[in-house]
Structure formats: C-alpha cells, structure tokens
Design brief:
The protein is mainly beta. 7% of the residues lie in helices and 42% in strands. The radius of gyration is 22 Å and the shape is globular.
C-alpha cells in the first residue's frame, strides 16, 4: 500500500510539473527554427531563483573627480586580467579601471588621429587584451594596445560602421549603429533592399559573410529605428540578439545559423508606431524626427552559467520621465561631416519602476524577471557580476552581484 501511495505521489508531481511548464511557454517550429512563446511569469513564477546584490556605482555625475565624471557613456568591456574599460563617448575617451573600480588610466581624446576618437560607438577586448574601438564619425575601427597605442586602423570606406566585437580567430562581428550614429545613415543613399543585420569582417574590414533578417516596416525611418538591437557573444561565440522595438530575442551559432527565436507577453503592443517621424534637409543640415515606437528592450547579456539577461520595459516611459538625445549632423561643401550631441529632458528623475531584468535559459525559455528601481540603458555581464548603465541621467554604471538562491 505504501508503494502504491508513493507511486501516486510521483505521478501527481509529474503532472503538476508538466502543467506548470506548459503554462510558462509554448514552442513551435517555423522554417526549421525553434520558436518559444513565453508567458509573463516564466518558469520561476513569482519567486525568482536568483537575486541581485548591489555593490557600488562606477561613475558619478556629481563628482569633482574628472576621471569618473562621464558624459553619455555607452559601453563597458572587460579584459582577462580584470580591468574594466568604460567607453566615455561624450568625452571622446576610454577610462580604464581595475577590478575594484579604482581609476588606472585615460586612453584617447577628441580627434581624428591614432588613438583619438569622435563619439566612439563601441569597445571590445579580445583574448590578447587588444582594444577594438568603432567610430561612425571617423568611419573606422581602431585596434589599440591595452595602453592605447595604435596597433591597426581599419578604414571603412564602403561600409558604415556599427558596433564591433572581437569574433573567433582574427575576425570581427559588426552589427547595429549605436547611440550617436542613428542620424549618420540619413545622409547616405537609402537601401533598395534591407541588408542582413550582422556582418563578419576580416582584419582588413572586408565582409566575409552576413546573416540575420531585418523586419521590413515598409518605411525608411521605421526600418532604421525598428530594427535597432543589442547583441552579445558568449564564450563559445554564440550570438544573442535582443531587438529594441520588436518582441524578438534570438540566438545564432558562430556560423550564423539561427538556433532559436523567443518572445514573451508584454503589457503593450509593438505592432504599430504612434508616429512615423520624418526627415527635413536644408543645405548641409539634416533634421530628423525619429519614429515614436514602443520600446521593449534595452540590452542583453550572458552570465557565467549561460543564462541570458534581457533588459525589458514593463511599461513605456512617461512624458515627465523622458530624456532624449539630440543629434545635429552637418556636411561641408567638401564632404566633411560634423556632429554635435546633447541631452535634454528631465535628467533629475533617477528612480523608476519601468525596467526589469528578464532571465532566459540557453534555449530561450523565460525563467523569471527581477525588477530594477532605476533607469537602464544597457547591460554588461562579467562572470557573476552585472553592470547596468544609466547613460543620460546619472551617467553611471550600477554594479550588482548575481546571487543564486
């Protein structure tokens, strides 16, 4: 009788587990690709299996120390020795810190020469400690030593410059446009067909292959904005992509094969824009009104356990919380370009309930979500530590420790 009771208990447990799993996500195969449709709460339900323990901030907008006084920082990168590199884009420099957050050195300043920058977009560090810095204004990728000395400069004449990461052996992966380059492409000829959104480059900047399908919104500005995304690589060079304005998270193998696509239940729609925006040209000046679209993601990262972290909006930012980046681009008669970037809006508001960090497993299944009490413009993960960027308000990074319960 006892054995029968135990057997019944096991059966009940298995049935309960199956029902819980079915309510958390549904999967289907579309064109040979696994597609995961996640419910809101995920596998963990209302009790996440991990938490975040706040450690400190990196950067301080109120500081009198210029070394931690960032202006529109965009990216944080890490080398294998534990150094932290902050791409302080608005100040046209890289700030180097040790693992404890102590300032070590400043790399670069404003300019067009070797080791100089004009609103740099991205930075990455390869296994040898070399720095990869991309700039749309200077139309180049610089490879620098850890001390900031020029190792190689790759001029991007035919291709626009996006966010760049070291990839595989003697290659780079490029995608997206970055914060300061949305307006740059407006002055170029409009594409007749939407290109792939990820490109593998050799060390001369030549495209070896490309992959990733853009969604066609049937409008030039909508395509430019609606296909913006964040991407990250894991230790095996798998690629994770989270789209800013599409309910779409994807994982690609190093060879470009789409492994899975994932979506989740949101509290708002991402289907139709409130406004399509517009472009006004006057002489050498271009004024761009960006489309007004519902944003759903602001970054993606992968931790040491292989879990995928996506910065997701629980609701849209209210008017009184809104902060915007103004980009003014002009072109001289000789073809030279200049750009000025400024921040406007209510930068005094630092706390909000807009953001949460969604956690997914390696197969695109939503595990759960952790709320965040401040603004988040991007996420950077280094092992079991998470750095959340407040780019335009506090202009700092919040450092957290991942704690498994």
């Amino acid at each position: 009788m006892r054995n029968i009771t135990r057997l019944i208990g096991v059966v009940v447990f298995l049935v309960a587990f199956t029902l819980t799993f079915s309510f958390s996500q549904k999967t289907e195969t579309i064109d040979g690709v696994r597609v995961v449709h996640n419910e809101k709460e995920g596998m963990w339900g209302k009790e996440p299996k991990v938490s975040l323990e706040f450690i400190k901030t990196v950067g301080d907008i109120e500081s009198t120390d210029d070394n931690i006084l960032f202006y529109m920082p965009t990216v944080m990168a890490f080398d294998e020795e534990g150094h932290i590199y902050v791409l302080d884009s608005g100040n046209h420099r890289i700030q180097k810190f040790d693992a404890s957050g102590t300032y070590v050195a400043t790399i670069g300043n404003q300019g067009q020469g070797p080791g100089e920058f004009q609103y740099p977009q991205s930075i990455d560090v390869d296994s040898n400690g070399m720095l990869y810095v991309s700039e749309s204004m200077n139309r180049r990728i610089q490879i620098l030593t850890p001390e900031g000395e020029e190792q190689k400069t790759i001029k991007m004449i035919e291709n626009s410059v996006g966010l760049v990461r070291a990839f595989g052996s003697e290659q780079m992966l490029m995608g997206g446009t970055g914060l300061f380059s949305f307006g740059m492409g407006m002055m170029d000829e409009e594409e007749k067909a939407l290109p792939k959104f990820l490109k593998v480059l050799d060390m001369d900047g030549e495209v070896q292959r490309d992959f990733g399908e853009q969604h066609d919104f049937k409008d030039f500005l909508m395509n430019r904005m609606g296909n913006q995304f964040h991407f990250i690589l894991d230790k095996s060079d798998n690629i994770y992509v989270a789209f800013d304005y599409q309910n779409r998270i994807e994982k690609y193998a190093p060879d470009g094969k789409l492994l899975w696509r994932s979506d989740r239940k949101l509290n708002y729609s991402t289907d139709a824009p409130k406004s399509k925006g517009g472009i006004q040209r006057s002489g050498g000046r271009v004024m761009i009104e960006q489309p007004d679209m519902n944003r759903c993601a602001s970054g993606v990262g992968v931790d040491s356990e292989g879990r995928v972290w996506v910065v997701t909006l629980k609701r849209q930012i209210k008017e009184e919380e809104r902060v915007e980046t103004g980009v003014r681009v002009s072109m001289s008669q000789t073809g030279g370009r200049s750009m000025n970037v400024s921040v406007g809006g209510n930068t005094d508001v630092r706390e909000t309930d807009v953001f949460q960090l969604e956690v997914y497993d390696t197969e695109g299944v939503l595990l759960g979500a952790i709320p965040v009490k401040h603004f988040v413009d991007d996420i950077f993960v280094n092992g079991d530590k998470i750095y959340l960027l407040d780019r335009m308000r506090g202009m700092q990074f919040f450092e957290y420790q991942i704690v498994d319960k």
